[in-house]
């Protein structure tokens, strides 16, 4: 399932190439025909991501809410910038291509930034460029739930968990169900909300971080990596975690999310040389501390990484480094 950084990157594609333009909206598959008709021909006013959900605002108080879920993906084609992150953020995302983004085996990102080109880009949990598009708009590929088309750019959505047209009040209801997002909410208020929520819960922190009503955008990869970086046992009840450590968790998530948006990769290791960093961008196996490393030695202590199921999702952690909280209180 796409985690928060992927959805923010998709929203920035829409911000750069669709906002301010009228879009022809259709449902080639037919399942979204009524919804498409409600926003067909309207100008897109804004595009934003909150956690794993995206909200596209149109004229006449109509919004398109999309949750990609496990199988959803957007295909962009036509004249578009392969990586819209820098342009749509007014150049503030300084880490983009800092070391040269490499197309790798997983979570692929694109090295080319700048001149638009007629091609196709798949954006979901992974980002993959494909062949140049000879005819525009291209014929829909597969079961396209909704197509948004301007004069030069096309976006096709397939396989989402949710795709619906909402009123502003309905959008607010959806937003009220979501936890804070570091890239959307006021930094101070978001941190306070996260700390206050978690500190009241008896639920294990490994489950709380995946609860989108507690914090928006964290999935399996970020969950495992954030907990390892904090050296925190994933089974620790939220209410037993010291406030200082909760604040560290939140700030680390905010930092990792920014890196993910700017690079297109869930890069969670630090302290790498330039060569190691480039290798990590090219190969998912080198990007993480514990995720997907069950049975392999911990990069810090050598203990084999453990994988277990937590609410039917795979949880990776190091039994040695992620010690009980007693170690934290002792400064370990």
From TrEMBL:
BP term (GO), one: base-excision repair
Broad EC category: lyase
The protein's required cofactors: Zn(2+)
Pfam families: Fapy_DNA_glyco, H2TH, zf-FPG_IleRS
Domain FPG-type: start-end pairs: 289-323
EC number: 4.2.99.18
Residue stretches making up the Formamidopyrimidine-DNA glycosylase catalytic domain: 2-94
GO molecular function term, any single one: zinc ion binding
PANTHER family: ENDONUCLEASE 8
Protein name from the UniProt record: DNA-(apurinic or apyrimidinic site) lyase
Gene source species: Rhodoglobus vestalii
Lineage, highest ranks first: Bacteria, Bacillati, Actinomycetota, Actinomycetes, Micrococcales
């Amino acid at each position: 399932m796409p985690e928060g950084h992927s959805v923010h990157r998709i929203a920035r594609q829409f911000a750069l190439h669709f906002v301010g333009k009228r879009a022809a909206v259709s449902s080639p598959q037919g399942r979204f025909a009524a919804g498409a008709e409600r926003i067909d021909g309207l100008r897109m006013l804004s595009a934003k991501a909150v956690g794993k959900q995206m909200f596209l605002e149109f004229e006449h108080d109509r919004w398109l809410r999309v949750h990609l879920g496990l199988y959803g993906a957007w295909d962009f084609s036509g004249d578009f910038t392969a990586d819209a992150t820098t342009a749509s953020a007014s150049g503030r995302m300084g880490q983009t291509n800092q070391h040269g983004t490499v197309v790798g085996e997983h979570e692929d990102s694109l090295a080319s930034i700048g001149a638009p080109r007629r091609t196709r880009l798949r954006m979901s949990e992974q980002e993959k460029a494909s062949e140049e598009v000879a005819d525009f708009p291209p014929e829909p590929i597969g079961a396209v739930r909704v197509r948004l088309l301007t004069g030069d750019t096309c976006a096709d959505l397939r396989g989402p968990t949710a795709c619906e047209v909402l009123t502003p009040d309905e959008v607010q209801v959806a937003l009220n169900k979501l936890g804070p997002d570091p890239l959307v909410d006021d930094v101070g208020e978001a941190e306070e909300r996260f700390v206050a929520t978690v500190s009241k819960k008896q639920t294990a922190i490994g489950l709380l971080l995946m609860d989108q009503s507690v914090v928006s955008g964290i999935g399996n990869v970020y969950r495992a990596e954030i907990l390892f970086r904090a050296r925190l046992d994933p089974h620790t009840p939220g209410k037993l975690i010291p406030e200082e450590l909760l604040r560290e968790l939140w700030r680390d998530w905010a930092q990792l999310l920014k890196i993910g948006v700017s690079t297109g990769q869930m890069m969670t290791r630090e302290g790498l040389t330039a060569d190691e960093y480039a290798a990590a961008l090219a190969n998912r196996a080198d990007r993480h501390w514990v995720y997907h490393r069950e049975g392999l030695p911990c990069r810090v202590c050598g203990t084999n990484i453990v994988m277990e199921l937590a609410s039917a999702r795979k949880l990776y952690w190091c039994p040695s480094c992620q010690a009980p909280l007693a170690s934290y209180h002792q400064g370990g």
